């Protein structure tokens, strides 16, 4: 068996080492610094998997579904800032990656997705397990490669990692026909990049930044909307400095949570559909909106023609020029890496005359906090998230699935560190929570990782409990069980006049027994006393633990802004 070593040749010159395309692929991944690959074998990637045997340098995690593999790679990438890698075979294996690729694409997550394909000699003949995965994924990848010559592999791998993790980051797909993975080549390491027309990080226009600083000095009611771009560009420190120097209140989008410390006195909360009252009112009453790495998503703006009606100027900073003016037309437009833009802005930043504005917003914040009706007889999901925050002191990596529990997590867990909140924002992918936590834990072995799930979403990739058990991945898996598709129920209740249709999850399995069947400790709580006790037990237990919190199906997420209404038209809920 040919051995792949991290000490592989790094020169441009081919070595005298005649190896297969599969061995070359693994060698290139090691050269790119890949720590772990998530995947699932099948016929057309067997040469690649054969090359993994007996190789101590190459770590591969066998998930129980290809969707689990791509979500795990995604969680690894989001939590570490590195490129996540997954592998699947052709046809159904590759097709099972589509949801995860789209998830990463919508949230600008750097992935390299490797798929096998049928023999190049039979491509296009509808051969067994053939699918045009490049055609299928064209709208949801940043770039794609079909490898036609084995000698191209080192260049393609090197380019793929560069493209995935520069500029506006995203997934890159590499499709390798089975015969190409077995062809022989004299190995060389590709170390140069020459991509025509690809400007990874355009230099910021300092004139636009100067204009922005001038606008801030003239603004009495400025507001920053900080998005996922702040986290992606590792610009949290620069944003904090910018806010302190300009004295500008901040809201952070769902993907921006953690990009600015939630305990800072100028943080006003998350805006949008389920945003905080203060954050939404700040945007609606601001005279200057500054979007930093946020794309004016419809869940943030809500009714577009009623968004920020008092804003005299709107500034938009983004690395992707396609985002400028796509939803909201900016008066000040700056294309560039967020970190680079803020580094320059901080050299010239001066405070805005916003003291009275800040005082008003802080009054809103104290008068209209996020709240819920607590109970001594039933367990409230908001209490569970507050308890998790208090016991972890806000220092855990939290992954979520999608639904009510996701919004409660965003509202009641306070994030102070970037890359600590891992969630599917743009696509809203159920099934994301558990496998993404596996990836996050592998990428951050010394940090506590908590996966918060609903009883609906957890069942979409629940088979990945096997990975936690076999690999002893110490994720603490929380299931908020209300026996219903909660977010769908909330919409049917409020918008569809209580016409509930196909949302009952009462026939779900006993999650504690199911966890135990996989070899994982399972715990359950249905009141506050039990919740505090078993959660502490979970934290003190080495290895993975599943904790089911049984809550009322009647609980809804508030505030809520209905589609087609303005940000300041919030349903606040009944808290009397």
From TrEMBL:
Keyword annotations: Amino-acid biosynthesis, Branched-chain amino acid biosynthesis, FAD, Flavoprotein, Magnesium, Metal-binding, Thiamine pyrophosphate, Transferase
Gene3D superfamilies named in the record: 3.40.50.970, TPP-binding domain
Pathway: Amino-acid biosynthesis; L-isoleucine biosynthesis; L-isoleucine from 2-oxobutanoate: step 1/4; Amino-acid biosynthesis; L-valine biosynthesis; L-valine from pyruvate: step 1/4
Pfam families per UniProt: TPP_enzyme_C (PF02775), TPP_enzyme_M (PF00205), TPP_enzyme_N (PF02776)
Domain Thiamine pyrophosphate enzyme N-terminal TPP-binding: start-end pairs: 21-134
UniProt cofactor note: Binds 1 thiamine pyrophosphate per subunit. Binds 1 Mg(2+) ion per subunit.
InterPro entries in the record: Acetolactate_synth_lsu, AHAS_TPP, DHS-like_NAD/FAD-binding_dom, THDP-binding, Thiamin_PyroP_enz_cen_dom, Thiamin_PyroP_enz_TPP-bd_dom, TPP-bd_CS, TPP_enz
Domain Thiamine pyrophosphate enzyme central: 209-343
The keyword Flavoprotein is annotated on this UniProt entry: yes
Domain Thiamine pyrophosphate enzyme TPP-binding, first and last residues per copy: 401-549
EC code(s) of this entry: 2.2.1.6
Cofactor dependency: thiamine diphosphate; Mg(2+)
Catalytic activity: 2 pyruvate + H(+) = (2S)-2-acetolactate + CO2
UniProt GO cellular component terms: acetolactate synthase complex
MF-aspect GO terms: acetolactate synthase activity; flavin adenine dinucleotide binding; magnesium ion binding; thiamine pyrophosphate binding
Family, per entry: Belongs to the TPP enzyme family.
The protein's name: Acetolactate synthase
Organism of this sequence: Paenibacillus durus
């Amino acid at each position: 068996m040919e051995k792949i070593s991290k000490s592989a040749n790094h020169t441009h010159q081919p070595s005298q080492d005649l190896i297969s395309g599969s061995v070359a692929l693994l060698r290139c991944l090691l050269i790119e610094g890949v720590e772990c690959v998530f995947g699932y074998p099948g016929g057309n990637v067997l040469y690649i998997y054969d090359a993994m045997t007996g190789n101590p340098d190459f770590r591969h995690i066998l998930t129980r579904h290809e969707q689990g593999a791509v979500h795990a790679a995604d969680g690894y990438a989001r939590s570490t800032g590195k490129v996540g890698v997954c592998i699947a075979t052709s046809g159904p294996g590759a097709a099972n990656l589509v949801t995860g690729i789209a998830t990463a694409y919508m949230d600008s997550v750097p992935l390299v997705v490797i798929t096998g394909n049928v023999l190049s000699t039979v491509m296009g003949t509808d051969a067994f397990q053939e699918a045009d995965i490049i055609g299928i994924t064209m709208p949801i990848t940043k770039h794609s490669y079909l490898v036609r010559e084995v000698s191209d592999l080192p260049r393609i791998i090197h380019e793929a990692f560069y493209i995935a993790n520069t500029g506006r980051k995203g997934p890159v797909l590499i499709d390798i026909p089975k015969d190409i993975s077995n062809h022989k080549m004299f190995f060389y390491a590709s170390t140069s990049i020459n991509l025509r027309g690809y400007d990874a990080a355009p230099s910021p226009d300092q004139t636009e930044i100067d204009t922005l600083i001038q606008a801030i000095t003239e603004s009495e009611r400025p507001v920053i909307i900080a998005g996922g771009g702040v986290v992606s560009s590792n610009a949290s420190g620069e944003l904090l400095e910018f806010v302190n120097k300009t004295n500008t209140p901040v809201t952070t989008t769902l993907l921006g949570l953690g990009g600015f410390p939630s305990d800072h006195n100028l943080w006003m909360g998350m805006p949008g559909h389920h945003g905080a009252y203060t954050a939404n009112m700040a945007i609606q009453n601001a005279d200057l909106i500054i979007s930093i790495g946020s794309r004016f998503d419809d869940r943030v703006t809500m009714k577009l023609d009623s968004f920020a009606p008092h804003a005299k100027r709107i500034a938009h900073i983004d690395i992707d020029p396609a985002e400028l003016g796509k939803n909201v037309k900016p008066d000040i437009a700056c294309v560039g890496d967020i970190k680079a833009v803020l580094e320059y802005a901080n050299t010239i930043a001066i405070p805005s005359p916003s003291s009275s504005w800040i005082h008003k917003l802080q009054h809103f914040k104290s008068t209209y906090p996020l709240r819920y009706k607590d109970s001594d007889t039933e367990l409230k999901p908001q209490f569970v998230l507050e308890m998790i925050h208090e016991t972890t002191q806000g220092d855990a990596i939290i992954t979520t699935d999608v639904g009510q529990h996701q919004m409660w997590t965003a509202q009641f867990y306070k994030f102070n560190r970037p890359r600590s909140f891992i969630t599917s924002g743009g696509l809203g992918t159920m099934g994301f929570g558990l496998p993404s936590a596996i990836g996050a834990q592998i990428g951050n072995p010394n940090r506590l990782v908590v996966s918060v799930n609903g009883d609906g979403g957890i069942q979409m990739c629940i088979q990945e409990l096997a990975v936690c058990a076999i690999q002893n991945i110490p994720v603490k898996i929380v299931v908020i069980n209300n026996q219903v598709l909660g977010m769908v129920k909330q919409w049917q209740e409020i918008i569809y006049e209580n016409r509930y249709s196909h949302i009952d999850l009462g026939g779900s399995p006993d999650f504690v027994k199911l966890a135990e069947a996989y070899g994982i400790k399972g715990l359950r709580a249905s009141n506050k006393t039990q919740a505090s006790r078993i959660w502490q037990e979970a934290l003190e237990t080495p290895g993975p633990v599943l904790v089911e919190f049984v809550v009322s199906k009647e609980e809804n997420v508030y505030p809520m802004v209905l589609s087609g209404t303005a940000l300041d038209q919030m349903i606040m809920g009944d808290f009397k």
